């Protein structure tokens, strides 16, 4: 997804009232911009953060500018959730997502008491797809949600109902940052959502996690990430570690001490 304009660099002053942010432009001017993200933006909203903003085509919009991305630890992070479904639809249309190609696609389809982002059809097969934008990271772990989400739990319930009706159901996490190697639910932030996700998977709901390259010129989904639902064994010493504390390297998942050649954790290197 290429931007149809040159984004404007700025510095974040503060994010407030959930959907607003104040930024300082390079000429020193300060403006209020729309912040299209309903989450907490944990780790992505520190004052002084470099940001990129766009200008709305509608001149009558109250806030002409939109916060698009923020710079965190040397990487751009896409926080505009209005773009996420378009990114996923583009990836599906380009044949990037296995099993989701050459399918008819409808957007925002009613399912029970909610609407799910996509309904894909091929012959008699139905695939319900709900998309979530993921900006939270701890260590090398991409995590969701970044705030308690009752709406997210309702979507999982609808996906489970779809499975009960014999349809495929997928929860799709779009990770809009490149400094992550795997995904795990943020159980410390919303344990109820993590439990609901685990239950959904046990009923046959599929998890897909795909990572995007984010730059001021374009955002493009490019690779899948592995899912680690809970504590895992270090491939080197065998000790249990939380996913966000470990790291994938050369096909192995290891705890921080085991990445030290001296194996400070006390193991013997396997």
The name CATH uses for the topology of the largest domain is Trna Endonuclease, Chain: A, domain 1
Sheet with the most strands?
6 strands, antiparallel
Q: Give a count of the beta strands, DSSP E runs of length 2 or more.
A: 19
Which whole number gives the mean pLDDT? 90
Placed side by side, the strands forming the largest sheet appear as: 3-2-1-4-5-6
Model regions low in confidence, pLDDT < 50 over at least 5 residues:
262-270
CATH class identity of the largest domain: Alpha Beta
Protein architecture, described:
It is a single chain. With 270 residues, the protein is mainly beta. It has 3 domains: 8-78, OB fold (Dihydrolipoamide Acetyltransferase, E2P); 81-224, Trna Endonuclease, Chain: A, domain 1; 231-270, no CATH class. It has helices spanning 84-93, 150-164, 191-202; strands at 8-16, 20-25, 30-34, 50-55, 65-72, 75-78, 104-111, 114-122, 125-134, 136-138, 141-144, 168-175, 182-185, 206-214, 219-224, 232-233, 240-241, 247-249, 252-254. Strand 18 and strand 19 form a beta hairpin.
Topology:
Elements: E1 8-16, E2 20-25, E3 30-34, E4 50-55, E5 65-72, E6 75-78, H1 84-93, E7 104-111, E8 114-122, E9 125-134, E10 136-138, E11 141-144, H2 150-164, E12 168-175, E13 182-185, H3 191-202, E14 206-214, E15 219-224, E16 232-233, E17 240-241, E18 247-249, E19 252-254
Parallel strand pairs: 9-12, 11-13, 12-14
Antiparallel strand pairs: 1-2, 1-4, 2-3, 4-5, 5-6, 7-8, 8-9, 10-11, 14-15, 16-17, 18-19
